[in-house]
Inverse folding.
């Protein structure tokens, strides 16, 4: 069940028309975008008329079998491709631009973590580095390493991860909720757009879009399982057609588009 309320919306595949969304699928025939739709769903199509009765054959006359007409599908011209969708008049963003935007945002987040998380990272390095040096020295000399005191750095690792995820949330969710753009998306000229209307995502939808990626970060400590989930999520852009949505886009009913609209 979709979270989009039933009603008349602009057709993402053809912004020149509008159709009725019942919460699960489109109903009825499309209407022009500037036409006034009915108050509710489109009227149901009338049932097909009953075929006329077939007269019974006369006695002694052999009933003729109806002719069977074979039809063939109309062949498409070589190299034909259906037109690309233009949600609300925008073109779909190329996956390469999305990757570039994500790279820019990752660098920005690393800089934020250096500023905010640097002290905790320094404490972890100060506690762990002597252990590593002693471990490497004994291993090189074929000595036992079982009696080396192991530093208790688990709590610091958890603190570093929690702060890092919180910084990511604060960096991305409010920006997408406001205008659909983080720093990286603004620099490469793309924007996150709702599928139902051309407007701000809002905080709830931006949070739902961030959740599949952000919460998976906590599973990095489990043999990088969270990183694999994030990688598959983002890789889905390459195989999804025609809107090229990642899994987190599908979770929030969003699409990433170029900022500049197509000319009518």
């Amino acid at each position: 069940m979709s979270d989009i309320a039933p009603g008349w919306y602009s057709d993402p595949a053809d912004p020149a028309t509008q159709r009725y969304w019942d919460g699960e699928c489109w109903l009825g025939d499309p209407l022009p975008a500037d036409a006034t739709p009915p108050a509710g769903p489109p009227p149901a199509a009338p049932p097909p008329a009953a075929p006329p009765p077939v007269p019974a054959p006369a006695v002694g006359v052999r009933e003729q079998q109806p002719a069977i007409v074979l039809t063939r599908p109309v062949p498409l011209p070589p190299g034909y491709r259906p037109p690309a969708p233009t949600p609300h008049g925008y073109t779909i963003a190329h996956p390469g631009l999305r990757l570039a935007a994500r790279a820019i945002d990752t660098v920005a987040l690393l800089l934020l973590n250096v500023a905010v998380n640097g002290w905790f990272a320094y404490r972890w390095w100060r506690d762990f580095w002597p252990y590593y040096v002693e471990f490497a020295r004994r291993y090189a000399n074929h000595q036992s390493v079982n009696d080396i005191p192991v530093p208790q750095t688990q709590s610091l690792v958890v603190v570093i991860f929690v702060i890092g995820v919180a910084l990511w949330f604060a960096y991305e969710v409010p920006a997408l909720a406001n205008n659909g753009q983080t720093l990286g998306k603004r620099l490469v000229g793309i924007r996150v757009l709702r599928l139902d209307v051309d407007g701000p995502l809002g905080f709830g939808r931006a949070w739902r879009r961030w959740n599949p990626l952000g919460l998976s970060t906590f599973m990095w400590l489990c043999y990088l399982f969270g990183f694999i989930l994030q990688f598959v999520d983002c890789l889905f852009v390459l195989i999804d057609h025609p809107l090229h949505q990642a899994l987190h886009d599908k979770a929030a009913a969003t699409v990433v588009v170029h900022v500049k609209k197509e000319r009518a």
About this structure: DSSP finds six helices and six strands in the chain. The chain has a mean pLDDT of 84. The longest strand covers residues 14-21.
